[in-house]
Specification:
4 strands; globular; mainly beta; 4-stranded antiparallel beta sheet; 1 helix
Length: 95
């Protein structure tokens, strides 16, 4: 992509997306709150394979923005972020 256009690849053809949909943050990882608008889908292209190619226009002017201040009316509720499983949980070892 560029500063005026973002490209999403490897999105399943079965995904429920339409031109005009707004892409928002998920809140996973705790860096940004869930629901912050990031971009609007402007074009959906069927690649002829299992995935779609999606072009989106950023909500912010990425060439001019160095910092962003997020202000939410009424405050922000912290969404608990699931922690990654420990090594023993992945391997099945009991320690």
């Amino acid at each position: 992509g560029s500063a005026h256009q973002l490209e999403l690849r490897h999105l399943s053809k079965l995904a429920d997306v339409r031109e005009g949909d707004v892409l928002v943050t998920s809140g996973l990882g705790g860096r940004y709150p869930a629901g912050f608008p990031v971009a609007r889908i402007v074009r959906i292209k069927d690649t002829g394979e299992a995935f779609l190619s999606i072009l989106a226009r950023p909500m912010a002017d990425l060439n001019r923005s160095k910092e962003v201040l997020l202000i939410w009316p009424g405050g922000v509720e912290k969404t608990p972020v699931p922690s990654a499983p420990g090594v023993s949980e992945l391997t099945g070892d009991m320690q």
